[in-house]
UniProtKB/TrEMBL annotation:
Lineage: superkingdom: Eukaryota
Lineage, broadest ranks: Eukaryota, Fungi, Dikarya, Basidiomycota, Ustilaginomycotina
Signal peptide stretch: 1-20
Keyword Zinc: no
Entry keyword set: Signal
Stretches with biased composition (Basic and acidic residues): 34-44
The protein's name: RlpA-like protein double-psi beta-barrel domain-containing protein
The keyword NADP appears for this protein: no
Matches recorded under InterPro entries: Expansin_CellWall (IPR051477), RlpA-like_sf (IPR036908)
Organism: Meira miltonrushii
Region of interest (Disordered), residue spans: 22-54
């Protein structure tokens, strides 16, 4: 009788130990599932917010400004911007297209703008900014900013 009592006791202890390590409540399994999903997303570079949206970073960009009649009839349509609107014109060869948001970085400053026009006379990494957008980065008298960075956020 002693052998069967010992065997039963060991079996009961084993079952209790395995049940203690596994919480079968719906709440704990939902939390575990969410934690698992977060870990998978954190490891998956496709889920990273920069990669997911297809953001692009251009280095060594150049900023110039435009105004007056040059603002009339933007190529992307819509109303004519004014000098203070946060908008830019990009070269037709640019990866930035109509409606894209751009973050313009120079000299430790950053300004957000929207692509509303194309600049036929601009070089590949040149962005033509409205006067107000340019002034958020430097004085108009500077005329041109080189060595800038642009983050393009496609829409």
């Amino acid at each position: 009788m002693r052998l069967s009592t010992i065997a039963l006791t060991l079996f009961a202890v084993g079952v209790s130990a395995s049940m203690a390590t596994e919480d079968l409540s719906p709440r704990s399994s939902a939390v575990a599932s969410r934690d698992f999903e977060r870990k998978i997303q954190a490891r998956d570079p496709k889920k990273h917010h920069h990669k997911q949206r297809g953001d692009m970073l251009l280095t060594d960009a150049k900023f110039t400004w435009y105004g007056g009649g040059q603002l009339d009839a933007p190529a992307c349509g819509g109303p004519t911007p004014n000098r203070n609107d946060r908008v830019v014109a990009v070269p037709t060869s640019s990866p930035a297209k109509c409606g894209d948001e751009v973050h313009l970085h120079h000299g430790g400053k950053m300004v957000k703008a929207k692509v509303v026009d194309y600049c036929s006379g601009c070089s590949d990494h040149q962005f033509d900014l409205t006067q107000g957008t340019f002034e958020a980065l430097a004085a108009l008298e500077v005329g041109e900013l080189s060595g800038a960075h642009v983050r393009i956020i496609p829409q």
